[in-house]
Write a structure and sequence with these properties.
With about 170 residues, the protein is α+β, with helices and mostly antiparallel strands. It contains four helices and nine strands, in the order E-E-E-H-H-E-E-E-H-E-H-E-E. It has two domains: about 120 residues, Aminopeptidase, CATH 3.40.630.30; about 50 residues. The strands form two sheets. A seven-stranded mixed beta sheet has the order 3-4-5-6-7-9-8, with helices on both faces. The chain binds coenzyme A (COA).
């Protein structure tokens, strides 16, 4: 596996250290803390639990295992929360801790989602993304998503500014 890049573009992080586990409600505190780092309108623990409790919902959590010898704790890196209905799935949210970005965590989460959806017979993944979210759009395009629509004024920024959403689709 090629070395992943750190935020400044240097090498120094081994992407094989990313461990993926099911995001259960037991991790709601961890997930809400990660969400708060990624979004202005962050979801609290209750919101995460409610979304995970919906039939057809599942999540995947990425973390870097700690090292007892070095007194280093497990480090949450990011998570994705999905909703499936019959043969379609929607990405409800995906977020990666700011200091873990551009290291392949987002890509690893999307790969794991695809594997799980394929096993469940899902053939189509949908999502909405703000038109000005260049990083997320780049991640999705790199992972085979294509634009199929646009929702006018879908998101409201804290300053009240409305931003369109792109609707992206990936057939798997
Ligand atoms: C979008 C987000 C999840 C990407 O996660 P990530 O772990 O940094 O993504 P990866 O490292 O797996 O990136 C894989 C590829 O996607 C593209 N990409 C990801 N972030 C990018 C950015 N900021 N700018 C340009 N390309 C980007 C690149 O092609 C990258 O490959 P490379 O690093 O080899 O060039 C992360 O930036 C994030 O959490 N943002 C805040 C929350 C958010 O906006 N979520 C999406 C809501 S729709």
């Amino acid at each position: 596996m090629s070395p992943a890049k750190s935020n400044d573009g240097s090498s120094g992080y081994d992407a094989s250290q990313i461990v993926l586990v099911p995001l259960t409600t037991a991790f709601a505190t961890v997930a809400s803390a990660l969400h708060a780092e990624g979004f202005d309108d962050a979801w609290d623990e209750d919101a995460i639990i409610r979304l995970l409790d919906v039939p057809g919902a599942f999540g995947i959590l990425a973390y870097r295992p700690g090292d007892q010898a070095k007194n280093a704790k497990d480090q949450p890196l990011g998570f994705v929360l999905m909703q499936t209905v019959l043969d379609e799935a929607e990405i409800n949210t995906i977020t990666v801790a700011p200091d873990a970005r551009r290291m392949g965590v987002g890509r690893a989460l999307l790969d794991a989602v695809k594997d799980r959806l394929l096993a469940a017979g899902v053939t189509r993944i949908l999502l909405e993304v703000a038109v000005d979210n260049d990083g997320a759009i780049a991640l999705y395009r790199q992972n085979g998503f294509a634009e199929i629509g646009r929702r006018k004024g879908y998101y409201a920024r804290p300053n009240g500014r409305k931003v369109d959403a792109l609707v992206l689709e990936r057939l798997i």
